[in-house]
Amino acid sequence: MTDVNSKNVYNPNVSEEGGINFVDVVNFFRRRKFAIGLITLISSSISVVYAYTLPPRWEGSFQIVVSRKGRSSGGFNNPMAQAQMMNSLASIAGIAEPDLGSTLKTDLVILRSPSVLRPVYEFASELKDSLPSSGKMPTFKPWLSNNVTVKQISKTKALTIKYRDTEKRLIIPVLNRMKDAYQAYSNKDRSESLSNGIAYARSQIKIFKDKSNASNRVLDNFELLHGIRSSDKWNEQESQTALFQDRQNGGQAMFSLKSGIEGISGASSGATSSIKATNNPIVDLAKINRELLRRKRIFTENDPSIKTLIRERKAISDYIALSAGGSLASPTYQPRSKEEAQTIMLDYKELKRRTKRYQNTLNSLESMLHSLSLEQARSSQPWQLISVPTLVDEMPISPVKKDIALIGFGIGLLVGSLLLFIKEAFEGKIYLIGDIEKRIPGKLLQRLPVSDTSSWKGSIALILQGLFSSSEKGKVGLLYVGDVDSGYLKLLSKCIKDGLGGRELLISGDMFDLAGCSTQILVTSPGAITYVNLERIANQILLQKPLLAGWLLIDPYI
Questions:
Q1: Whether the predicted model's global pTM rises above the 0.90 cut
Q2: What is the CATH number of domain 430-555?
Q3: How does strand 158-165 pair with strand 58-65?
């Protein structure tokens, strides 16, 4: 006997990598096409009926810009001026500046919040109740989820607000009410914010006005006690005149210094002095130093005029140290040391700095109050409407019957395929040709196409010529495995009988009935036998004598 087919012939139904074979998937749909088609038809029919029972839904929308719009480059419409004003108030109040980057997200939340949309829902509910056959109004949360959509336009600060309803007449009125409610809420927020800012500024003005007045009184008393004249109250000429008078009336040391300086003229060999006393001890000290240098070039160190200038220089230096550079000119109290004079001036500067800080804060608060009052008086529309509420289309947006039917078709196809796949898995029948070929211990002689039964006779004749010689005698057994179609089995047995000539052919589904045959040929088809039965028959074939000559596959897939 010679081999007609080789087991190494490529089988397109078997995946060499053990994965899902596309041909196997196609074969699955081919053998289950009627059942899958019926399930898909039922699902599609139900979807179409469902689509026609749904009420039509209309949709309308409008758009707003979230960012505030300034109409001029300055004043309170300017975003920069508003930011500076609010930042100043926040810094005075000790609160953090709001995160402007979160404005858009905040507005998205506000637009869907019950505080804004609850009145709109009640308005829509009243309108719907007034219309005949309009259906029942859902509760607020389902209504919000199914009827209202708020979305940001990509890469912009604009928002699109959409409203859907089964009543076309409700779309525009509800959208208008929604627009008005949102703008009213926005103005309310602005008005409350300004009112709170004004109230806060007024309360702080009262506090800092009291602090400023008290600090000014303490500063004035300190200046009077120590004879300090502030440059904020007198100009330089008036200050020098007052300082000179204080020193003449209450500062005898300075008076004697000036007299001594003016009396230096004529001393030492008839030399005259060019020094003239001033109201500034620092200037007087500088003049004495220059005069002293000039005289030392002319006279000796023992000259009376030089000694006099040295004494006067020391006296003025001591006076400067004890009066903090001439700033302290009290007729009733003189510092006892340089350190005490410096301490008095440090205390004075701290009092003056604190008084100035209170006054500056008070000025800022008063300016802030004025700005907030003007802003409160100015009418403002914080959200710009860029499109009026309109219907998206004159036709309903839903239900889209075509889409629903396609969804039903897809669900039917998927569910039907899954159910039939599970059914085949539970049945345990072998449909993959590769699995059959692996389990039968013999050569696959031929795949007989169901689509072309007329070719069977010629194929069988060639197979038998290769298997048997003309001199061979004995019975030939045809073992059919599983539920092979009887029509195909009868046709196959006729072809084999014609090819055997005068040899007897026994046909049975039981191997023991064919025990007396000298040669056996097995025939089966995909789905005709389970894995368990095929494994059992394969073991019996291995134990029997003679061995199986080969097997035939009635293939419905080619």
A1: no
A2: 3.40.50
A3: antiparallel
Largest CA distance in the chain: 176
Domain spans in the chain, listed from the N-terminal domain onward: 32-54+399-426, 236-329, 430-555
Nearest CA-CA partner of 172 in 356, 388, 8: 388
Q: Could you give the 3-state DSSP secondary structure of residue 476?
A: strand
Q: Which amino acid, 40?
A: T
Confidence of residue 436 (pLDDT cuts 50, 70, 90): confident
Q: How far apart are CA 39 and CA 33, in angstroms?
A: 10
CB neighbours of 181 closer than 8 A, spacing ≥ 6? 116, 117, 119, 120
pLDDT given for residue 329 in this prediction = 61
What confidence tens digit (pLDDT) does each residue in 78-103 have?
A: 444 444 554 554 444 444 444 444 66
Q: Count of CB atoms within 10 A of residue 503's CB?
A: 17
Q: Which two tokens stand for residue 90?
A: 């926040």
d(CA 384, CA 62): 11
Alpha carbon distances (Å) from 430 to 426, 449, 533? 11, 18, 10
pLDDT classification of 522: cutoffs 50, 70, 90: very high
